[in-house]
Hints:
The chain is an all-alpha fold. The protein has helices at residues 2-9, 11-20, 30-52, 57-60, 70-79, 84-89, 102-130, 139-142, 148-166, 169-188.
Amino acid sequence: MILQRLKLQTHTQHAALESQLPLLDPGMSLQAYRQCLRRFYGYYLPLESLLMAQTVWDDINFDYTQRCKAPSLERDLLALGDSPAQLVQIPRCHNIPMLHSLAQVLGCLYVIEGATLGGQVITKHLQTNLGLTPAHGAAFFNAYGVRTGAQWKAYGTMLITHAEQAGDNTCIVDSANQTFQTMGQWLFHKVACV
């Protein structure tokens, strides 16, 4: 089954990324959190622009427009004091995953949609430690709120349905690993910006 294969074969990249995120550190400051959001914004904005330009959505009957995370990041950053002019100045990642096929889109979405599950834990932590709520500063990690589980299941169902159509599942796994890798490089190391 593709979901089990993805979980198993992306574990190393996923664990490496998670281990570096400071989001659950009890001593994380509001400024450090804001910097973290800026890095996520610089990655998600170009990635989601590329995702939205894909031509696969009608073929797989999957509406990604309602799942975009960059608008939530913008709301969070504005709530935390950034101005619209400052958002424009945030560096953008240039080294994003290649998305030339359905398989690559499916693998990328595994990472992006899967991140919403961990976001629920992070949201609770942000409220406890920094006093942030989904309405003020923590919308990105809250993602779909009470609908998070249902949204993940809908993605999983779509993935299972279209994995065979996408061809060799190795390409799906490779794309997921590339997404984890490029995200980690961007978040924790200075890489090419646009």
